[in-house]
Write a structure and sequence with these properties.
By secondary structure, the protein is an all-beta fold. It contains no helices and eleven strands. Strands 2, 4, 5, 6, 9, 10 and 11 form a seven-stranded mixed beta sheet that branches. Strands 1-3-8-7 form a four-stranded antiparallel beta sheet, with no helix packed on it.
């Protein structure tokens, strides 16, 4: 059973930066790079939205709302996926979730709160 634990959220001023981490367990060491990983976020009163993905070959994709400001990456040795967020805006305030796919199933973390003050 894959388990994901996000960390790194917090309160930051507009224009600032944060790096979120998503540590995966229940998978073979170093195997995170062979999986599809993604970050989503959910703001109060809104639906959960996709913001970034990284595929098994390393190709990345971003929602227009974060393109050029956020970067998804991963460390195979640590089985960890990261989301580097820069130039943060108040509208980036949300709970951020990571997801991975393995064996046709989706696995989600519990989320980490990011709050950006104006």
């Amino acid at each position: 059973q894959v388990q994901l634990v996000e960390s790194g959220g917090g309160l930051v001023q507009g224009g600032g930066s944060l790096r979120l981490s998503c540590a995966a367990s229940g998978i073979a060491s170093g195997s995170i790079g062979r999986l599809y990983n993604a970050w989503y976020r959910q703001a109060p009163g809104k639906q959960r939205e996709w913001i970034a993905s990284i595929f098994s070959g390393g190709t990345t994709g971003y929602a227009n709302s974060v393109k050029g400001r956020f970067t998804i990456s991963r460390d195979g040795a640590k089985n960890t996926v990261y989301l580097q967020m820069s130039s943060l805006k108040p509208e980036d305030t949300a709970v951020y979730y990571c997801k991975c796919q393995q064996g046709g199933a989706d696995y989600w973390g519990q989320g980490t709160q990011v709050t950006v003050s104006s």
